[in-house]
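Hi R.,

Quick one: here's the Response regulator receiver protein sequence you asked about.
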Amino acid sequence: MAKLLVVDDEPINLEIIGHCLEDEHQLAFAEDGLEAWAMLEASPQAYDGVILDRMMPRMDGMEVLRRLKADKRFRDVPVIMQSAADSSEQVAEGLAAGAWYYLAKPYAPKALRSIVSAALDDRRNRKDLAQIGGRLQTILDLADRASFRFRTLEEVSVLSSTLAQMCPNPETVAMGLSELMLNAVEHGNLGIDYAQKGRLIEDGLWQDEVERRLAEPAQSTRHASVELERDPECLIFTIRDQGLGFDWQRYLDLDPARAFDSHGRGIAMARHLAFAHMEYRGAGNEVRVSVALTDPTDSTACDDDSI
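And here's the predicted structure, written out as tokens:
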């Protein structure tokens, strides 16, 4: 069971969240940001996620968020911000500060569980992907150019984590590659659109539907690919699928209007957290990304000519 820190100055909100989640997660509660920060500092490894109200006395949610994202001990801990569903300006400010998950007030139990699961799964997957990939690191470090095919969820997991081990920031690159490769499989080759995925996740059927479509005879010869190129300063990855493409421009940033959805943030997270540059080509069934080999935080290390 994951352990969550729930922060809200309204006792009724703590009670509602506790009632919805207590059977699935271990919960700790704080009544304002100052108490929450003291609990985090006292046990920096204790919490797998934070559910954070925005408006609180003594220390508000935005200040807690800024402190979390500025402290390397907590940078990977997902923060689920509570906000009214129509507060697009507040959502945009939270996104800029590093909050990628949103919980709409008033609470709907199904939506609450869904967004908490999405946040925790994303973090768990990043850690798992980083651990899987060390097996082929030595061989890949000798490669200047390579090409790989993939079509299943397991192949996405193993391949993205393995390729990421070549990078200075393997955990975030594994997340980024995994998101783009999953998009190539589910949206590109299998044709699962945004609305369909939302319904499948809500009903707990997303993975079953992906596996069902992969087993169809028409999919037996379809695959996606990822190509690797190395230059002195960058690693460049090109991911292609055999689908019709999609309206990729909408997903380069997380629109506040979609912030409360259980999915739809993967491309934006990959762009902002994992890669120095990202470029979609054509209809959207090809994307090229680069990773700086020297300083992964330096977005100028790989110039536009690299990709």
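Residues 3-107 form a domain with the Rossmann fold fold (CATH 3.40.50.2300).

Cheers,
M.
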